[in-house]
Amino acid sequence: MYGLPHDIPPAGQCGQRGRAMDHGDDTDAMKLRKARRGRGRLLRRFARHDGGSAVIEFAVLALPFLLLVFAILESSISFGAQQMLTNATDDMARKFRTGQVLPGDLDKDKDLVRDFICERIQLVVSDGCPGLAVELNSYTTFMQAAASEIPFDDDGYLHVNNLKIKPGGSGAKNQLRVYYRWPVMTDFMRRSMSNLPDGKTLLYATVTWQNEPFDD
Q1: pLDDT score, position 118
Q2: What is the 3-state secondary structure (H, E, C) of 73-107?
Q3: What residue ranges of the chain have pLDDT lower than 70?
Q4: At what angle do helices 51-97 and 112-121 cross, to 10 degrees?
Q5: Side-by-side strand order, sheet with 165-166
Q6: Which pLDDT does position 186 carry in this prediction?
Q7: What pLDDT shows up at residue 4?
Q8: What pLDDT score was predicted for residue 1?
Q9: CA distances (Å), 7 to each of 16, 38, 116, 171, 180, in order?
Q10: Considering the entire predicted model, what is its pTM?
Q11: Which of 8, 93, 127, 209 has its C-alpha lying 20 to 30 A from 101's C-alpha?
Q12: Is residue 216 within 8 Å of residue 171, measured between CB atoms?
């Protein structure tokens, strides 16, 4: 009988070695699949994580949003002040037109017109209305009143020191002009909103009328 070669293992040992080799291949494949799944989960988690992008988007949008909010507030407050100034001017003109306030009353109180208007707009301006100026003149015709100019100098500044308060009596044609040099509160809005060389906005209201035939 011929003996089995020494380099050939018995049948049972061959099966065990084959199974061990198959098991090793399966283990390597499982490890590879797990690694791929782990990388896939990491990529999906990274794609779903948007915390950083939200911060970046907020930083990009916050500045223009705040600029828009400040522009709306600045424009709204200025518009409200203009409306209050117009209403106060109309009320003061009505008092002169109907004879409730006579030219002689200004001899007793030279600041009567300014104080009345300042009181009406005190809600939106500083105490004492530092930017307020009043001009009241009497004219022969309405054409003369319409031709009167706002006292600007060549540099665009408003002359308020020489404004006169001289209304006419019964039946006279008067013109009341009220100016307020409104400070622009927001720096970046000053260039677009200001119309005076010092960076302020001129709020302006005027009324022209003929007095009723009252007793002087």
Answers
A1: 96
A2: HHHHHHHHHHHHHHHHHHHHHHHHHCCCCCHHHHH
A3: 1-26, 28-52, 54-55
A4: 150
A5: 165-166, 132-139, 173-183, 200-210
A6: 78
A7: 46
A8: 46
A9: 16, 43, 123, 139, 113
A10: 0.70
A11: 127
A12: no
Q: How far, in Å, are 37, 38, 53, 166 from residue 178 at the CA level?
A: 78, 77, 53, 14
Is there a contact between 176 and 96 (Cβ–Cβ < 8 Å)?
yes
Helix, coil or strand: residue 209: strand
The bridge status of strand 165-166 relative to strand 200-210 is unpaired
Residue 120 burial (CB count, 10 A): 16
**How many CA atoms, within 13 angstroms, populate the side-chain half-sphere of residue 154?**
0
**Residue 188: DSSP 8-state:** G
pLDDT value for 58: 73
Instruction: For the beta carbon of residue 85, count every other beta carbon within 10 angstroms.
Output: 23
Determine contact, residues 115/151, Cβ cutoff 8 Å. no
Q: Report the C-alpha gap between 92 and 85 in whole angstroms.
A: 11
- Tell me the one-letter amino acid at 123: L
